[in-house]
């Protein structure tokens, strides 16, 4: 069965090009021309493995779409952002986007990001079959259910945030470099000047409510504290 991708973008020429390329690579692609129709499609009971979401659209912009979707779904989302627009990029990651690709984007690069998410999802499924739970300090992960708690309180994590937290907890008490985290959580090499890991870690700390659980080791990476 083909993996399903939803493209939400008002640029007909671009989405037609991307849809043609991704379909030729074995993906099933559907397109929505604006944010409102995108939200209805995503939350309307239709199954998609990845959503590609433009940040600037009529009726409802990409960030508003992301906020609405994240309130109800953990579906992986890749944002399309204007080249050099670091603000939209960082805000998107803070609001729960799993990754981003600057526009104008190359179909091959977008495919690589999609495949990285799909591979990671499969790896998570394989790992879940042998791991019931991972507990460090007062944080517990349940890989099979893709759920996490701190104490008795559920943590609402995106797919990428869960991947990062799992990678840190599996190496609890050890410093994990951002390069390693990018490979394990995003399934891609860390690009120069890429702040994705930092933004995701900041979001995880906020959700944990205890920033001291994840320490920054300057110049080396991050460490999950093992009490």
Automatic annotation (TrEMBL):
Gene Ontology molecular function, alphabetical: phosphorelay response regulator activity; transcription cis-regulatory region binding
The record ties this protein, via InterPro entries, to:
CheY-like_superfamily (IPR011006), CpxR-like_REC (IPR058124), OmpR/PhoB-type_DNA-bd (IPR001867), Sig_transdc_resp-reg_C-effctor (IPR016032), Sig_transdc_resp-reg_receiver (IPR001789), WalR-like (IPR039420), WH-like_DNA-bd_sf (IPR036388)
What organism is this sequence from? Alysiella filiformis DSM 16848
Record has Heme as a keyword: no
Keywords from the named record: Cytoplasm, DNA-binding, Phosphoprotein, Transcription, Transcription regulation, Two-component regulatory system
Every copy of the Response regulatory domain together lies at 4-118
Which residues are reported to carry the modification 4-aspartylphosphate? 54
Name a Pfam family for this protein: Response_reg
Domain named OmpR/PhoB-type: residues: 131-226
- Which PROSITE patterns does the protein's record reference? OMPR_PHOB, RESPONSE_REGULATORY
Q: Which domain of life does this protein belong to?
A: Bacteria
Q: Which SUPFAM superfamilies match?
A: C-terminal effector domain of the bipartite response regulators, CheY-like
A GO biological process of this protein is: regulation of DNA-templated transcription
Localization per Swiss-Prot or TrEMBL: Cytoplasm
Instruction: Report the DNA-binding ranges.
Output: 131-226
Spell out the GO cellular component terms annotated for this protein, sorted alphabetically and separated by semicolons: cytosol; protein-DNA complex
Q: What is this protein called?
A: Two-component system, OmpR family, response regulator
Q: Does the keyword Magnesium apply?
A: no
């Amino acid at each position: 069965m083909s993996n399903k991708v939803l493209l939400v973008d008002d640029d007909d020429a671009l989405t037609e090009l991307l849809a043609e390329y991704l379909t030729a690579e074995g993906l099933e692609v559907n397109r929505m021309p604006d944010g409102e129709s995108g939200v209805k499609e995503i939350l309307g009971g239709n199954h998609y493995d990845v959503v590609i979401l433009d940040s600037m659209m009529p009726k409802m912009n990409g960030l508003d779409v992301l906020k609405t979707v994240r309130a109800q779904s953990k579906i992986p989302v890749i944002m399309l952002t204007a080249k050099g627009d670091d603000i939209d990029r960082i805000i998107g990651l803070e609001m729960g986007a799993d990754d981003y690709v600057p526009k104008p984007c190359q179909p091959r690069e977008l495919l690589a990001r999609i495949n990285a998410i799909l591979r990671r999802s499969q790896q998570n499924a394989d790992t879940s079959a042998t791991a019931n739970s991972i507990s460090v300090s007062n944080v517990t992960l349940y890989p099979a259910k893709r759920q996490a708690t701190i104490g008795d309180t559920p943590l609402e994590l995106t797919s990428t945030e869960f991947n990062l937290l799992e990678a840190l907890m599996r190496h609890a008490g050890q410093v994990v470099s951002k390069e390693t985290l990018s490979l394990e959580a995003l399934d891609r090499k860390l690009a120069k000047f890429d702040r994705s890991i930092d933004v995701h870690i900041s979001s995880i700390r906020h959700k944990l409510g205890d920033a001291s659980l994840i320490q920054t080791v300057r110049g080396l990476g991050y460490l999950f504290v093992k009490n």
